[in-house]
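Lab notebook, bench 4. The sequencing result for the construct came back, and we need a structural model before the next group meeting so we can plan mutations. Quick request posted to the team channel:

Model the 3D structure of this chain.
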Amino acid sequence: MSIVIQEGGCFHCGLPNTEGDAYPVTIVGQVHYMCCPGCQAVASAIVDNGLESYYEFRTEPAARGDAALDNTMAKLQVYDEPELQEEFVFDQGVHKQIQLTVEGITCAACGWLIEKQLAKLQGIRQVSVNVSARRALITWDNDILKLSGILGRMKSIGYESLPFQTDRHEASYQKEQKSYLKKVGLAGIMTMQVMMLAMGQYFDVFGNIDQEMVQFFNAICLLLTTPVVLYSGSVFYVSALKALQAKTVNMDVPVSIAIIATYIAGVLAVNKSTGEVYFESICMFIFFLLISRFLEHRSRHRASEISSNMLKLIPVTAMRWAGDAWQSVLAKQLVTGDKVLVKAGENIPIDGVVLEGQSTVDESMLTGEFEPVRKGIHDRVFAGALNQQGSLSIEVTSSLKYAMMNQILRLQEVAMSSKPKVALIADKLSRYFVTIVLIISALTYWYWWSQDDPHAFWITISVLVATCPCALGLATPSALTCAMAKLNKVGILLKRADALEQVTYATDIIFDKTGTLTRGEFSISKHQFTSNSARIDTPATQDLPIETYLSALAQVLESRSEHPIAKAYGEIDTRFKFDLSEYVVEIGRGIRAKVNNVSCVMGSKKFVLHETQQKDDADWAGANVLMAVNSQVVAAFWVTDTIKEDVAEVIDSLHEYDLSILSGDDQGNVEMVANQLHIDTAMGGCTPEAKLDYIQKQQANHKSILMLGDGINDAPVLAAADVSIAVGNASDLAKNAADVVLLNPKLTSLSDVVTMAHRTKRKIKQNIAWALSYNLLVLPFAVSGVLTPWQAALGMSLSSVIVVYNSTRLMR
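Done. Here's the predicted structure in token form:
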């Protein structure tokens, strides 16, 4: 007879229900209320499986549902709080983005499984899993889906996930590392014992062993093998189960089938005292495969920690000016506008601009260039850089979350979300290959069974083990991860992984001139004031020459420009009072503004002449900047630049490409640079539209364009090129538009990108070729029964290790 639950108690466990009607379940047509999500989940499972009669005949209340579920849901909901999200959630316009540390990822199939399952959630905009770093980058619509829902879904498919934080991520890695070591250690010790007993039987070293002693040895082997199968091999079963729950297959499915089937066959043979046992093969298989996984795990971490360790350079605390004294605070508490003191020998805690002091700063962690950089007032400094000499007073320009170093790591995760075509092909091929392996194994068993061969089962096991495409799944992600880690170490940031592949297809390389091929450190070699300048009314309060006033006017017009040429005009002359209004920058052309309510235009010769409707003058020949007041040209400037030291060497190394220069500078200046560098095509006076039109025409002729630029006016062409690179001194807009960012201002980094792109492509092809060749080569031996299960296990493990080792050579 069923028990009676007191009023106010949980219908499932009988404990007091303090949640009211929060957790309802309909049982036999009647709604009952539970005390927690755990009880609700268990009751729902009972109902869903048609076992509702349990509640009619029970004599005791059930045990309370999994309290962990209740606690987990409560913990996950905490992550929906805006104050907590401030530390690790990034705003992407109308969407939000987060990087998660994911535990339990074992292979490329895990990444694919997570991406497919999360993509089913309404509100998810993008999911990319970096298997090598065990991280997931997720973009979602917060109005539709909460972060706790994402974390909950990850947990429901068997993966623990938390917002990425360096210390937690490292702790997670160490936890997995210890788990692998325990499993490998147990499997290794037991394998030695089982092999000793098995070899004793094989070679009869104990003399004439009777059947009873054989059975005794087999029983001991079963006892030793059981913990290896249940504990050491659990990593494969969990992964396979996750895949099957998601109605797909991964590489651990055939592995699990082989282990479990061989183990069950051995158990039956021991109990019935008849048949063959392969306990030594099981132990060796698990041992070899775990060593392979352990080496993969360690090499992936080694590749990713080069980037992750950058964050360790950022100090935890900072000295902030509190109005009357310096106060020690957490670096993550700093906000824009705060004033921070960095003493000699300390790492800079946040991105900012120098307010007071001078020093040399080591920025090698960002640029890969170990030569110290001189910093003074108004210069930018970055979190993690080492202040080597004097003290610096810095004004914070962005919070720690948006520091350059954090953005670099985020962009690397974004890069891994855009896989090259060869990676997509390899991922797809490996999933199909698993299905093919299962079919071939079934056909192999059917054939040998129909031939009445007593070894049909063991031959099938060998096929399952030998042809598991683990190496194929590792071929591309291992190579890409190692390539990105190496490039990051030398100050090169990839914003999309397929950019490396696209570089290998490039036929033309197009350079912007100013700041890319040249230093971008301009000086005015000559200036001339026209006869129109005599008609300019200078402020009556200033008894200074008109030329001085016009120079000051040029300074104030250029003061808000981000173009490198602006620096050539120097600081604003404070002897004059200027009221600047209606300031407009025409990208790639020049500036329009009102100064003291007088219309002024300044920029390229072509732009100014068009705006003023004036004709060119022989006196201005060679001038590349004009200034006009009230539609009258009043000054001409000859602004010159010098070619970077390393450019000529880099250009010589790119002789197999068609090289061009597109620049907004005067044609004469552009041709001078092109002649010095032996570049055939040089186009000056180009507007952003003209540059874009040129690139599109080249692409229409089936050319693949690699574009290098640095200025605001280069952003449209950088976005349009097949692959684009922003040099180290580029504007923020150019960096946003580019696929690759050179943090080091030296152009030798371009050679590093091109070389690494070709090396990575070769490594991926080598890895895929090796993985496919091995599987195709070993298949006939496995199907024909020549290969034993332990030999198949050894071959498969070595195949994976070879692929990972080959990829890590990219880091040398």
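The first strand starts at residue 23 and ends at 27.
Will bring this to the meeting.
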